Amino acid sequence: MSKQLDDTTKEPKEATASPNFVGGRVARLIRFIELLGETEGLSADVIAERLAVSRRTVFRDLKLLQQAGVDLTSKSGQGYRLKEKPLKTTLDLGPIEALGLLLLGKLAEAMPAQPLFAQATQAVHKIIAHLPKEASEVYSDLMNSITIAPGGLDFAYSDDKHFRTLQYCIEERIICKLIYQGVDEQQQVITHIRPLHLHFYKRTCYLLAYSELHEQVRMFKLARVLKITQTNDTFSPFHFSMQEFLDDAWGIIPGSRKYEIAIEFSPRVATNVSEVHWHRTQQVSFEPDGSCILRFTVSGIDEIKWWILGYGDQAIVREPPELRDAVRDIAINTAKNYE
């Protein structure tokens, strides 16, 4: 791991994502192949300049391309090139594929404030624009009969700068200085982080990063990031698995232990509840009276208790006692508000 940093370690520079960097390493590798196919040879320095990355990244990407089976050649004084130039192909979309693409575009259009969703919408429109005129008109009419309501959305971003910057720093393993607004309006967290992962959950995006202040991997809501500053230091490869981090949490906040949970839902809501896949450990059983019992193995109870309370008197916690007591206490206090 890299050494601990403080505010006096090195003069930081404002974080900026590469102008060509949009979708991470995959997008960069595609552009890399395009560059090699357009010329008779490019040096590592020229490639680095065209892609706005370091020479180290260029050599790392060359190795990845070779491992993926891309046929490359290099010659002193001429640089790197493809042994055979790629053939130009046209996009061939079937009717169902085109409709699926439009539906994804409509979903992105409904959430324009989310990182890269506005760009995704533009990309879909560009692709559809290249379809035959008659087909475009038919698809447009079909889409007018479909609406998408994504529910409550965060007032999260004026742009996607933080997202793109962090994605770049994750790829390049760059240590950053983070200024973060805590839940308390008066609290600001200042720490150096090793950014590891970006996670979209429900209506907003979160950053998973090792925080030197907290000495552990923490989750930061991107909407509360006040400033992210790139340092001149990088960090060694860091094993991180989102699945291991969540560890069967109900949502995004794992607890200190796992619970075997059983919730009984009344016949009035049983069908609707059972039709949704809420958690990977979910098991459903129906009773003779039409009620159902949902069982889960969940890390922590803080998140699931609020979900249960959303069903009011139509849900009863059977197990465990800790969850049953927590839901009961909140329900009692809620009732007192109306006395």
Which helices and strands appear, and what pairs or packs with what?
Elements: E1 13-14, H1 25-38, H2 44-51, H3 55-67, E2 72-75, E3 79-82, H4 95-110, H5 117-129, H6 133-143, H7 161-172, E4 174-181, E5 188-201, E6 204-211, E7 216-221, E8 225-234, H8 242-246, E9 258-265, H9 267-274, E10 283-286, E11 292-299, H10 302-309, E12 315-319, H11 321-336
Antiparallel strand pairs: 1-8, 2-3, 4-5, 4-8, 5-6, 6-7, 9-11, 9-12, 10-11
Report on the architecture of this protein:
The protein contains 11 helices and 12 strands. It is of the alpha+beta class. It has 4 domains: 25-82, Winged helix-like DNA-binding domain superfamily/Winged helix DNA-binding domain (Arc Repressor Mutant, subunit A); 95-143, no CATH class; 161-246, SH3 type barrels; 258-336, 2-Layer Sandwich (Alpha-Beta Plaits), CATH 3.30.70. The longest helix has 16 residues, at 95-110. It starts with 12 loop residues before the first strand and ends with a helix.
